[in-house]
Amino acid sequence: MKFGSKICLVVGLIICLSFPSLVMGQEKVDLKMMTGPMGGSWYPLGGAIADAIQKEIPGVTLTVAPGGGVANVEAVEFGKCDIGFSNSSSGVDAIYGRPPFKQKITNMRQLANLYPQYFQIVVLEDSGIKSVSDLKGKVISPGPKGHTGEFAARQVLEIYGLSYKDMSKVHHVGYSDTVALMKDGHCDGWMLCTTIPAASIMDLASSRKIRLISLPEDKIKAMQKLNAGYIPRLIPKGTYQGVDYDVHGFGFFTHLIISAKLPDDLVYKITKTMAKNLPRFGDVVKDMKGVTPKDLALDIGIPFHPGALKYFKEIKAL
Predict the structure, then answer these.
(1) Which of 39, 55, 81, 256 makes an SS bond possible with 175, Cβ 3.0 to 4.6 Å?
(2) Where in the chain is the domain with CATH 3.40.190.10?
(3) How, if at all, do strands 29-34 and 83-87 pair?
(4) What sections of 78-216 are H helices per DSSP?
(5) Among 194, 162, 163, 186, which residue's Cα sits nearest to residue 36?
(6) For 169-195, what is each residue's pLDDT tens digit?
(7) b/e string for 167-179 if b means 16 or more Cβ within 10 A?
(8) C-beta separation of 119 from 156 below 8 A
(9) Does domain 23-114+255-314 have CATH number 3.40.190.10?
(10) pLDDT tens-digit series, residues 99-139
(11) How far is CA 71 from the centre of its chain?
């Protein structure tokens, strides 16, 4: 064997030993996904999605962390995570650089649409609160700052001529803590964005009589003027214990966003995995039951990642 051939063989062995994943055709990739607060639907669904991706795509590790709709957009933009749950209203605001965002978001791309969310205003039946106007001077919990629901709560107060300054106290805490405050009578109004029926609201309704506040049509239209991503939503009577009337309001879509910097081929595989595992996701979060690949490909006004777009076109979902 010639000396040059020996050198090539040695170099080849070093590469094989140092980078086995490249030899096997499997590039190792560590990704991070931001979801939502504990007690909501995003965190467990994120775990199921991460598990599916790691099983279906060799070499990919995906860690899951709690987050919020607005915060997740910024996390993707500034490289703090690769994939995130968000809401269509926040995504649209981000694209145009509208509040709560301080600049246009350029690194965020659409991965997949998921399911509808509902903005819900919960009060105790004996509180005497029957309208958003009645929240003035009360104690409210609009959720942690950086969450889409918290920003929407501020907007709802705004269209009624109110702000946090008009409240006696504002608790920026999660679902579990808010339920405890409501049960103890230390909070008068709870404003949140989540699925229906929300487990946390059901928990509250099991021990205290609750009332859900409707928004009149003109206020729903006022919200739509603030953000075209808001969609009229109806919470049917009987959704929660003791709420034997329809509740009118608004909502938006939960969707997955992804970094534009990720390779097209990887995002293609992630999108394919999402579509393949939809029945499994429906077992984790009931709102995912019946969701089809065509639903995932719904255009909500945010540019798709080229990898996701390729897959959706391939299966003729677009």
Answers:
(1) 39
(2) 23-114+255-314, 117-253
(3) parallel
(4) 88-96, 148-159, 175-183, 199-205
(5) 194
(6) 999 999 999 999 999 999 999 999 988
(7) beebbebbbebbb
(8) yes
(9) yes
(10) 889 999 999 999 999 998 899 999 999 999 999 999 999 99
(11) 10
Task: At 316, give phi and psi (nearest 5°).
Answer: 60, 35
- Reported pTM: 0.73
Beta bridge partners of 194: 118
Reduced to 3 states (helix: H, G, I; strand: E, B; else coil), residue 233 is strand
Spell out the residues 6+ positions from residue 7 whose beta carbon is closer than 8 angstroms to its own.
Answer: none
Per DSSP, 22 falls in state: H
DSSP 168: S
Residue type, 232: P
Q: Dihedral, CA atoms, 251, 99, 80, 91, nearest 10 degrees?
A: 40
Report the C-alpha dihedral over residues 257, 259, 263, 264, rounded to 10 degrees.
Answer: 30
Place of tokens 């404003």: 191
Q: Which CATH superfamily is domain 117-253 in?
A: Periplasmic binding protein-like II (3.40.190.10)
H-helix segments, 161-210 = 175-183, 199-205
- Is there a contact between 41 and 287 (Cβ–Cβ < 8 Å)? yes
